[in-house]
Amino acid sequence: MTAHRATPSRNRRRRSGPAHAPARGWRGPLWGGLTALAVLGAAGFAAAGWTFTSDSTTEAAAPTGRAGAGRAPSPPSSPSASLSPSASSSPSVSPSARPSKPVVPATGPGTFTTAPGASAKVGTGTALRYRVEVEDDLELSLTEVAKQVESILGDPRGWTADGKSAFQRVSGGATDFALRVATPGTVDKICGQHGLDTGGEYNCSAAENVMVNLRRWELATPVYAKDVTAYRALIINHEVGHFLHHGHVGCPGAGKPAPAMMQQIKGMHGCVPNVWPYDEDGRYITGPAVP
Length: 291
Hints:
This protein is α/β, with parallel strands linked by helices. The chain contains six helices and seven strands; from the N terminus they run ααβββαββαββαα. A hairpin with a 2-residue loop joins strand 6 and strand 7. The relative contact order is 0.21.
């Protein structure tokens, strides 16, 4: 979830702020040397009954190819539920029916369909109106993607906890931003139009576009491999955070929760995994500012 350059909205965006630095210049293994995206560990997840066997800094390349039709959509799941000991982010299917790894097409048609319907307003103040869109020809359910996004933006640990941010999903009319799930190639193209290099791997926030890379949506990263649903919350909280003009921060200290605005894909640096901007007591989780 890299560096992002936000530009003024062409619709009704109410905020303005400095541009974020472009996501260029990473070198070496994917997890070891990124200057790009951000996209609980022993202490954070231990509280919720999770343990991790690895904090790898190398991300394996995902398979590519055009997705075929016919895969059943995953059932709706809440990021809150996925962090409880008894919950699972995996569909209840037999081992023989469960694919070992989702197939992520390298690119798509570059056209999108908007999720129908609308949500209630969440948060205090004037709501930022947003659309949820999925690139055409993907094996994703528009309805289920929209439900997950609504759940994340409405969670009490999300951005509404700041007491001034509010959101409402719509399917038409004026909007402040569009949250779009797309293939790596399409994300690269749209983010590249704003000077951001997503390298086929990352997400970005640019102008009115909050771009979610399908590879990250489906595969997460090694640290979050056991809870892909939780990682989706990190993607959305991080990229919407950029839309709200929050910059990158670093780890506040060993054993502490990683801020949502930390580039966790670059490594945890002693922090434990966390996907929310605020804790359950309404305290903002942050760290020292970084480029």
